[in-house]
Amino acid sequence: MDTKIKVNWQGDFKSGTGTLSIDNSVLNQLQFGPIFSKGERKLTNPEELLGSAHAACFNLNLSYVISQSGLKPKSLETSAKITLKDNVITRSDLHLIACIPNIEKQDFDKMVLKAKELCAVGNALKAEVSVTAELLD
Fold this sequence. Notes:
This protein has three helices and six strands, in the order E-E-E-H-E-E-H-H-E. The chain is an alpha+beta fold. It folds into two domains: about 1-45, no CATH class; about 45-135, K homology (KH) domain (GMP Synthetase, Chain A, domain 3, 2-Layer Sandwich). The strands form two sheets. It has a three-stranded antiparallel sheet with strand order 1-2-3, with no helix packed on it.
């Protein structure tokens, strides 16, 4: 898979803004700025985008693993917490809340681990990755 992403930055570090667009995507002219942006600006930043990508990648892979077993999840909600220290992403902690009818807890735990292994975004990180998972009835 090849995806073309176009990023543009205008201005200095503190007051400038950037936009990113992804071919074949609804993301078009998404505004971003540095993580330290202050004030009324409602911008995302690259670290938040990475966390979002990690959670989405994990969810897609978990959905795939579950469907391979013949089950169908009602919902998979994953949140990501990215930890930044000394300008380095040191951790990505995922938290999953899943509702999957007719699944055994031990099978669920194995599927979560498999999805973590398959996640291309998590595999690209040079950071510790953790996943906590809750299975709802």
